[in-house]
Write a structure and sequence with these properties.
The protein is of the alpha+beta class and 372 residues long. A hairpin with an 8-residue loop joins strand 3 and strand 4. Helix 3 packs antiparallel against helix 4 and helix 5 runs antiparallel to helix 6. The longest helix is centred in the C-terminal third of the chain and has 25 residues. The C terminus is likely disordered.
Length: 372
């Protein structure tokens, strides 16, 4: 079956569900708690067609603070309309209310002693318009394969896991060069040309002149390498910590997807799969097989030169059941679905399961160019 999603951002609505299972509904304006105290201002952020990391960078710039002072529970889809809680350290309600940012709306809620950290949520509720001439294969989906979706790896430039593997291997130069110079066809032509030119001579000073100004992360790395030649660890640290951590998470996700594919292909009845880390002990031969095929060890996840990116590892369910699944609307060639998923699970995988194949159409993308 053929289907399409995300023709416009409004086709894909993501509403965060907090740890107490409260849905942060789109359009909701919280009544500010004037009795609350703490150094972190908790706000509701609504964004439209905006990358989460870039949204945080823009908010930090507008408030003239370090991006490290902003906390959030998880990244949301870019081509979507999304809601989530964020915390901002050291600012007042009045500071935020003065902001006017296109496609970003911040609504102060209360002060808190705690910063919102990655993972501080129950999950997300999704409302998705799926364009398809055929109905979903079931209206009561049970357990489906819990693959990581393409968002984990990057939609236009699926390199996040590739950079992560280089970091895990201790190849920081390779990680930087992969991030800066891997070329993908879906990217804007000016960026592609800048990356191709960089591959030819690795002239970072010249690359600064050629990379578009909106490519803030690439330019931050290039600036560091111009000032500190050969300091590839420092170049990576020019990126926000949350983004650096995502590189390792993405590589763990890539390995998890490989493991789950093998479980399905071999008809095994495992319930959990590995998010590999230095403290995780293999449970079966298949967990060892995936590591051997990748040429990495568990100890590689103890990253000595960048200990803040080290990962102990943990386990993740191989199967997930959508909560409260229902079809809100049936139209001429489309269906509007609503369901909730626990944190770390992907709505695109559910849609692919219902309208594509076996929920395996969304996986680590391949077809990348090779570095010179």
């Amino acid at each position: 079956m053929a289907y399409e999603i995300k023709r416009v951002p409004e086709d894909f609505v993501v509403e965060e569900i907090d740890p107490e299972k409260k849905v942060i509904e789109l359009g909701w304006t919280p009544e500010f708690d004037h009795e609350s105290r703490g150094q972190h201002l908790v706000c509701v952020l609504e964004k439209r067609d905006y990358d989460t990391h870039l949204a945080m960078k823009r908010i930090a710039r507008a408030l003239r603070i370090s991006q490290e002072r902003i906390g959030y529970a998880g990244t949301k889809d870019k081509k979507a309309v999304t809601t989530q809680r964020i915390s901002i350290q050291g600012v007042k309600k009045e500071d935020v209310e003065k902001l006017s940012l296109q496609d970003l709306t911040l609504k102060p809620w209360h002060y808190s002693e705690k910063k919102i950290k990655l993972g501080d949520l129950w999950g997300n509720r999704f409302t998705i318009k799926v364009y398809s001439d055929s109905p979903p294969k079931t209206e009561n989906p049970g357990k489906i394969p819990n693959f990581f979706g393409e968002q984990r790896f990057g939609s236009i430039r699926p390199i996040t896991h590739l950079v992560g593997k280089k970091i895990v291997e201790g190849d920081f130069e390779g990680a930087v060069k992969t991030y800066l110079a891997e070329v993908f066809e879906g990217e804007a032509s000016q960026a592609k040309e800048a990356r191709k030119a960089l591959q030819q001579a690795w002239d970072y000073k010249k690359a600064l002149q050629e990379f578009p100004k909106k490519y803030k992360y690439e330019r931050a790395m290039l600036n560091h390498l111009v000032k500190h030649p050969g300091d590839y660890v420092g170049a990576l640290r020019a990126l926000p910590k949350n983004l650096r951590i995502m590189f390792v998470y993405a590589y763990q996700s890539h390995l998890f997807n490989k493991f789950l594919e093998k479980v399905i292909e071999r008809g095994l009845e495992y319930e959990e799969g590995p998010l590999y880390g230095y403290a995780l002990k293999p449970r079966n031969y298949l967990e060892k097989e995936v590591l051997e095929e990748e040429g990495v060890s568990l100890e590689n996840f103890r990253i000595k030169n960048m200990p803040e990116l080290s990962s102990k590892g943990k386990r993740r369910p191989l199967w997930v059941k959508p909560v409260g699944f229902r079809i809100l609307e049936r139209g001429e060639g489309y269906y509007v679905l609503r369901f909730a998923l626990p944190k770390g699970c992907y709505a695109t995988v559910v849609v692919d399961y219902l309208f594509g194949g076996a929920g395996r159409g969304i996986r680590t993308p391949e077809g990348r160019s090779q570095l010179a």
